[in-house]
Design brief:
With about 325 residues, the protein is α/β, with parallel strands linked by helices. Helices cover about 50% and strands about 15% of the residues.
Length: about 325
């Protein structure tokens, strides 16, 4: 197990939070739950269609109907949603009965994100929900001792410049929160600082400028080709005056196609662990999963969700 993964689990064990798992019919979820409970990583609420609290289903149906009726939702449709463990779990998080949710081993990303948006909503001042992966490559010299964050690899098909800027900011903050490192964010492209021109490159440049304005404390740069972003020798030839080039540990992709293809290639060809996607921008910490995930992936997503729940609790106490 990579040292950073060990540290993430250890950090979660310091203050376990209540995390809800709504896909307990799945054998990987069952195996992960045993590890989580044995290691004391989180306090779990384990849901399946057979163990929903019928009284809560009734209450949540009425509340969800009131929340969504202006969108055309009927009472019968609201009940169908609340009889789905995924949406029931999201309501449990909304009501404060759980500190976070991890799902996606069975449900699609679209369904997981829909449950989060409909029931939990966006965080204050958030502009978008996106998905970031922790890519853990044993023995790699790149990123943070072989760990890089990839975003958005899960949710937004073609983010506009403002969305792209926020994706970079959210992912940088996640890196600092979970890894306790200084994030160095590269906005990726097929161009490195003017080596090519085009409307897509201009969108990335605008995103970088917006991110600089919103979060000047974050080290970020773009547009950068991926080799210039992570390999010092290449950066010396292509981009000599960048604060990020050759040292990036957070990679922001121009669109979902690039981000999704890239994480799966790295996972399969380099034997990387892909932990996530961690959903960013929601009012409460939630993690999606790839339907190809392992039990270990679930354990580590839960650990990350615990750490984020603790961070959110600390911020609420100080505000």
């Amino acid at each position: 197990m990579h040292e950073i993964v060990k540290s993430i689990r250890a950090k979660a064990r310091q203050n376990p939070r209540t995390i809800i798992l709504p896909e307990m019919e799945d054998e990987r979820m069952q195996a992960a739950a045993r590890v989580i409970e044995d290691e004391g990583i989180a306090n779990l609420i384990k849901l399946s269609r057979d163990n929903l609290d019928r009284a809560k289903v009734d209450v949540y149906t009425e509340e969800f109907y009131e929340m969504r009726k202006a969108k055309g939702l009927s009472l019968d449709a609201a009940r169908r949603y609340m009889e789905n463990p995924l949406f029931y779990a999201a309501m449990e998080v909304r009501k404060g009965n759980a500190d976070g949710m991890v799902a996606g081993a069975v449900n699609t990303t679209a369904d997981v994100v829909r449950s989060v948006l409909y029931c939990i909503g966006l965080a204050p001042r958030a502009r978008v929900i996106c998905g970031a992966f922790f890519m853990v490559v044993e023995g790699s010299p790149y990123g943070e001792n072989g760990v890089l964050l990839f975003a958005d690899s899960a949710v937004v098909p073609v983010p506009n410049e403002k969305q792209l800027a926020h994706i970079g900011i959210y992912t940088a903050r996640l890196a600092r929160e979970i890894l306790d490192v200084e994030p160095r964010v590269a906005f990726l492209s097929y161009s490195s600082k003017g080596s090519a021109e085009g409307p897509e490159i201009e969108r990335i440049r605008k995103a970088v400028a917006i991110a600089h304005d919103i979060a000047p404390e974050i080290i970020l740069d773009g547009e950068l080709q991926v080799d210039a972003a992570i390999i010092p020798e290449v950066a010396q030839h292509k981009v000599k005056d960048s604060p990020v080039a050759g040292r990036a540990n957070v990679l922001i992709f121009p669109d979902l196609e690039a981000g999704n293809i890239s994480y799966k290639l790295v996972e399969r060809l380099a034997g990387a662990r892909a932990i996530g996607p961690i959903l960013l921008g929601s009012a409460k910490p939630c993690s999606d999963l790839s339907r190809g995930c392992s039990a270990e992936d679930i354990v580590d997503c839960v650990a990350i969700t615990v750490i984020r729940a603790n961070q959110q609790s600390n911020e609420e106490k100080t505000n």
